[in-house]
């Protein structure tokens, strides 16, 4: 079947009656669609793609895995809603000449302006703006509950505990990898896992000439974004990480390459370390300690 939102449910149901279920990514089916798109052409393309000897398939997820992954989807949704609400509140206050810098860290300044009786806001606008303030409080409380649930799962999950030994990986990233990433045996090696995450350059090579472009951005975008954020935390606090000291690979990269390129390169390296820990077990050891 073609992988989609309900494919995992039907994959489990069809598998119960003895069939071998294989889910084909839609991007791998599209090249086999001939001319017009309709149900018959789609079915033919799926059958054609599934018979290819080198075709890669999506593993069917269990109900437990899908349920555990839902917390990350809901958390992302609430964070987007909170960002929208902050932007709306800042925009409305800007109409009255009250300018507050961007970023969620300045949310308290926006709330303080609305709740200040001497702020000079029109009396008709204050009740409406307080609706946004109440929405921010509600969203913050719900996000805090989900963060607590993720922290609890990280303590109970053995894989997540081992992944948290990697610099830059905390409870959120470790739990997300343990839940959202496919089984490590899906990939032949660590570089394949990093490529699936979209942390490798897109190739457009021909005639023996290698041409590398921007990142492919394939795979699970949430994991890619979280790993880049984790890499950024290592770079920001490089004075406390042995792997970022002068003379190390990361230290030399920071002196020669653009900051964002270094963050993605470090995220790629973290992804390869993550695959090795999931596939072979054990905990992370820094190069200095291993030597």
How many H/I helical runs?
A: 13
Q: What ranges have pLDDT less than 50 throughout 5 or more consecutive residues?
A: none
Helix content: 55-70%
Strand percentage: under 5%
How large is the radius of gyration? 24 Å
Mean pLDDT: 89
Shape designation: globular
Produce a short descriptive summary.
The protein has helices spanning 7-16, 26-29, 39-50, 63-94, 107-115, 125-156, 158-163, 171-180, 190-196, 221-236, 249-256, 259-280, 287-290, and strands at residues 201-203, 212-215. With 291 residues, it is mainly α. It has a two-stranded antiparallel ribbon with strand order 1-2.
What does this structure look like?
- With 291 residues, the chain is mainly alpha-helical.
- The protein folds into three domains: 7-50, no CATH class; 63-156; 158-203 and 215-290, no CATH class.
- Helix content is 59%, strand content 2%.
- It contains 13 helices and two strands.
- The protein has a two-stranded antiparallel ribbon with strand order 1-2.
- A hairpin with an 8-residue loop joins strand 1 (201-203) and strand 2.
- The longest helix has 32 residues, at 63-94.
């Amino acid at each position: 079947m073609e992988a989609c939102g309900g494919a995992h449910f039907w994959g489990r149901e069809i598998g119960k009656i003895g069939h071998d279920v294989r889910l084909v990514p839609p991007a791998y089916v599209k090249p086999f669609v001939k001319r017009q798109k309709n149900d018959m052409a789609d079915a033919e393309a799926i059958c054609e793609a599934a018979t290819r000897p080198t075709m890669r398939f999506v593993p069917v997820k269990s109900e437990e895995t899908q349920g555990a992954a839902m917390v990350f989807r809901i958390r992302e949704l609430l964070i987007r809603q909170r960002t929208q609400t902050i932007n709306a509140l800042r925009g409305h206050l800007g109409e009255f000449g009250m300018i507050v810098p961007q970023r969620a860290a300045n949310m308290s300044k926006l709330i303080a302006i609305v709740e200040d009786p001497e702020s000079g806001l029109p009396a008709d606008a204050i009740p409406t703006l307080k609706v946004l303030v109440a929405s921010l409080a509600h969203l913050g409380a719900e996000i805090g509950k989900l963060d607590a649930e993720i922290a609890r799962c990280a303590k109970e999950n053995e894989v997540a505990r081992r992944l948290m030994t990697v610099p830059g990986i905390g409870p959120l990233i470790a739990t997300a990898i343990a839940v959202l990433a496919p089984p490590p045996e899906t990939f032949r090696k660590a570089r394949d896992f990093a490529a699936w995450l979209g942390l490798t350059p897109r190739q457009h090579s021909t005639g023996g000439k290698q041409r590398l472009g921007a990142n492919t951005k394939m795979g699970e975008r949430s994991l890619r974004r979280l790993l880049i954020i984790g890499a950024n935390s290592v770079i920001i606090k490089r004075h406390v990480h042995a792997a970022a000291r002068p003379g190390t690979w990361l230290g030399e990269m920071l002196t020669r390459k653009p900051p964002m390129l270094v963050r993605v390169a470090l995220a790629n390296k973290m992804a390869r370390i993550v695959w090795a820990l999931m596939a072979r077990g054990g905990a992370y050891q820094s190069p200095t300690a291993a030597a």
